[in-house]
Amino acid sequence: MRIKNPKDFWAGLMFIGTGVFFAVFAYANYQMGTAVRMGPAYFPFLLGGLLAFLGLLVFLEGFAFEGEKLVLPFNIVDLVIAIAIFAVLLELAPRIGLSPDWGMLAASLVVSVLTVLYRPNAKALVLISVACLVYGYSMKPLGLVGATAALVFISAYGGHEFKWKEVAILFVILILFSYFVFVKGLTLPFPMWPAAWS
Amino acid sequence: MELFNNLILGFGVAITPINLLYAFIGVLLGTLIGVLPGVGPVATIAMLLPITFNLNPVSALIMLAGIYYGAQYGGSTTAILVNIPGESSSVVTCLDGYQMARQGRAGPALAIAAIGSFFAGCVATLLIAVAAPPLAEIALKFGPSEYFSLMVFGLIAATVLARGSLIKAIAMVVFGLLLGIIGTDVNSGVLRFTFGIPELSDGIGFVVVAVGMFGTAEIIANLDLKDKREVFLSKVTHLYPTKEDLKRSWASILRGTALGSCLGILPGGGALLASFGAYTLEKKVSSHPEQFGKGAIEGVAGPESANNAGAQTSFIPMLTLGIPGNAVMALMIGALMIQGIAPGPQVMNEKPQLFWGLIASMWVGNLMLVVLNLPMIGMWVKLLTVPYRYLYPSILVFMAIGVFSLSNNPFDVLIMAVFGVLGYVCVKLECEPAPMILGFILGPLMEENLRRAMLLSRGDPFVFFQKPISLGFMVASAILLVIVALPTIRKKRDEAFVEESK
């Protein structure tokens, strides 16, 4: 059997996996109940089964009809490695006396560097996602100014062109805007400066 | 004369200074993102949802609605002047609009687009005011089995009209329904699929999913394409259409409005479907179809009227039934929920200010759009020269700050990033994210109504086929599925969407 449409093949696998997971997890952990009095497992079990069935149809279609090539900037091994890096560093951080937030930041950094070095095509995907992550997890330790700087510089680096001067000007405009609209205008309780400074 | 009184009530709400201001902000933002390719109304509304938390519900909805129909105006401007559709619903406007601009008739094309949109907006607003109350009246009589069947119908119809593989679209709906289940089960209090993470006990935030799936995923997808935009500006000399132009386009405007209004009400419909339908219709009924694609004014007037009409009538099922027809309406329902308002037919009776205020604001907003658009065309086009590398970090800042502010918890930003990656992968696998978001918002409602219906029927699943209204929805869903599965229709549908993706 030859995979004729890799997009259907992988989409089908994704749906089957998700469906089976939800159905089995619901069945194993929650009460099924009866059709009259449905327990918490009933609806997810039904839906999980339905999703797995639909996934199977899509999966089989992947062998039946010719389709375009699937171009992803990463493969399944890369994905597993990235998740493993996050898992290990999140587990490691509390053991050396740091908060898990630092583990998250460290993992983001490692994954970004690895991506830039070995998977340049996935630069946009990884750096944009990581930029958001870093923004969220650095807000408490670094304040709004630090977090915004991280977001702007990392995400800009994920684009096609990166000029320090331009990005710096963009950062200044955005931090001023954030300050006046969100902190002053909408009175959101964000710290402005790194926690260590005050 | 209840309608009249209701409209007066609505205008009373809509023309308070604060609501005028928010309508203005909405249509201004809408025009802005309409002009800019790569930033759509779904992402923008998702981005602004967290901020609406701080507004009162009427102002919030007025602003968000303004963004949606405002984007239809803005999209046409760049389609005509520089052959770049700012919105997917103005793709067809490029065909004839840009040709007119090349022939030095950009002014009349823009004017006809604006006139058509304004006329369609007025008619659609009136249609909402007339059609919504009786629909809501019927919907109030719905029991759990009717509601469940209606949701099945809504979701099926939305997938039928979506592009791409039908099975994948339905699978995405089911996937969304499953994600909607995460969190505390209302009936038993059991935490489902939370894996011991306390942040998940209230479920995954709708805003977070929407921003990730549509916002970050869109930015990543845009960066994947090399952005090389070249802007050739055609000069706008005279704005006013000639008598001949008006004579040729008034019928198209009427047809576009009628078709757009009908297609907008359908689940899965809205601006996009309306504009494509209208272009095809105009080409069919025209006495000189050979001029289409070479600057026929009907090819601008029809679709532009239709997309605005469709954008507005798609509010009807959302306002009266609480069922979203497309992703934008799902976001509107999300906005209502953020405000603690349960969407559904009771909104009209319980919150008349909100309901009629929103409708009246659409008319006000349409008027503002005409004023905003025609004299300020030059400025909007200048915006096109802003490179994407300045835009996307700015958009990211707004999205991240909005999501973070939901609960001052970095976990929300993490979920947003995860859904960004998921959204990107889904696009690559040709699985549309829009059906997923519809499923996600309807998941808890569907489960609740299924449980109640089964409880009332003592576990008899045939209850959905015994009550006439419920049976009607089920039969309609089945017919829809069969029709789409038929090979000839399937081919036609694929062709229609091929034209779109050009």
Identify low-pLDDT runs of chain A.
none
Which structural class fits the helix and strand makeup of chain B? mainly alpha
The stretches of 5 or more residues of chain B where confidence is low (pLDDT under 50) are: 498-502
Main structural class of chain A: mainly alpha
Could you spell the SSE succession of chain B in H and E letters? Answer: HHHHHHHHEEHHHHHHHHHHHHHHH
Order of helices and strands of chain A: HHHHHH
The coarse overall form of chain B would be: globular
Strand line-up across the major sheet of chain B: 1-2
- What number of structural domains do the residues of chain B give? 1
Mean pLDDT of chain A: 88
Number of helices of chain A: 6
- Strand percentage of chain B lies at under 5%
Explain what you see.
The complex is a heterodimer of chains A (198) and B (502). Helices cover 72% and strands 0% of the residues of chain A. Chain A has helices at residues 6-29, 42-64, 76-95, 100-118, 123-157, 164-185. The longest helix of chain A is centred in the C-terminal third of the chain and has 35 residues, at 123-157. The mean pLDDT of chain A is 88. Chain B has helices at residues 2-14, 17-35, 41-52, 57-82, 91-102, 106-140, 144-161, 166-181, 206-224, 243-265, 271-285, 298-313, 315-321, 327-338, 346-350, 352-373, 377-383, 388-405, 410-428, 433-456, 463-466, 468-485, 487-501; strands at 183-184, 191-192. In chain B, α3 packs antiparallel against α4, α8 (166-181) crosses α20 (433-456) and α9 packs antiparallel against α20. Chain B is mostly helical and 502 residues long. Chain B has 23 helices and two strands. In chain B, a hairpin with a 6-residue loop joins β1 and β2. A two-stranded antiparallel ribbon of chain B has the order 1-2. Chain B has one domain (2-501). The chains are: A mainly alpha (198), B mainly alpha (502). At the A-B interface, α1, α2, α5 and α6 of A face α8, α9, α18, α19 and α20 of B.
